[in-house]
Structure prediction request, 321 residues.
Amino acid sequence: AMFALDANSTYLDPQALALLREEQGGSIQGIGALVSPEDRTLEEGDRQCSVISETCRIYIVSTIEGAPAEGAGLQRDDVIVAVDGESIVGWTVDEVTATVRGPAGTDVTLTIERQGETFDVTITRAAVTIPVIASEMFGDVGYIRLSIFNETADEQLRDALTKLLCQSSEILVIDLRNNPGGLLETAINITSFFLPRGEVVVTEGPEGDRVYRVTGDTVVPEEVEVIVVVNKGSASASEVVTAVLQEQGRVTVVGENTFGKNTVQQRYALSNGGAFKLTVARWLTPGGLDFGGSGLDPDITLEIDPGLDPATLVELVLAAR
Prediction:
């Protein structure tokens, strides 16, 4: 029998695989922009796509603070239509990513479509550290922004939580806006910081279901109020953590409906140095919630300006809860 592959299953050539490993390690050489391939002609739901076409387009979701993409003025919902003068129609998402990235100090020219207008912007690539954690105290409120679930995110978050709690933080605001997700193990560890017991996530696949439980490594006392802030750029592992904590009544979720990616990919090494990334399962909450395509609904819907400073964000979120 023949089965169609989903948009998240793809071949990674050796260059694309190296870039993925680089990203999961916490740094890249490129422009520092988070992108999302979507077919927005479809109804709300699973708009993810993998090969660029007239309808499957690559949108800028966010830029890393201080990175070349931010300096060049790229904005959320900008569409990349060409790289170095060559149309990207027919390219895979990984091919676009690999071409836009490159050695620090070299230039790449992107053709951008914004609100019906098209223009070129030349950006000098740089070494970009993916910011995992930013934290700050505002009175008795501890604020943490978690940007990605990479190999070091759980330990960095543990350190940030410990420091804020030592400063007598009574409320924690965890900002997961534009967090694209990452590693399942990291998501399980981070969920365990907030839940003393129980299940974290269920993976449902052709070989049966697998249940992952908390590690028992709780960091945040139950009496500390926790607010999680999300938006349309919150995806994958960030949705898993949010969904489980919301389902358990441990957090209040504030912001926008999330991205809606709940599939699990596994890499299979190939003899040419590349790999095949195949969707092997989907994530469900212990209560059976399937947020694939539809995303998660916040407890409190709130539009938040992407450029809002942390202090104002905390004030806004506290006033809305």
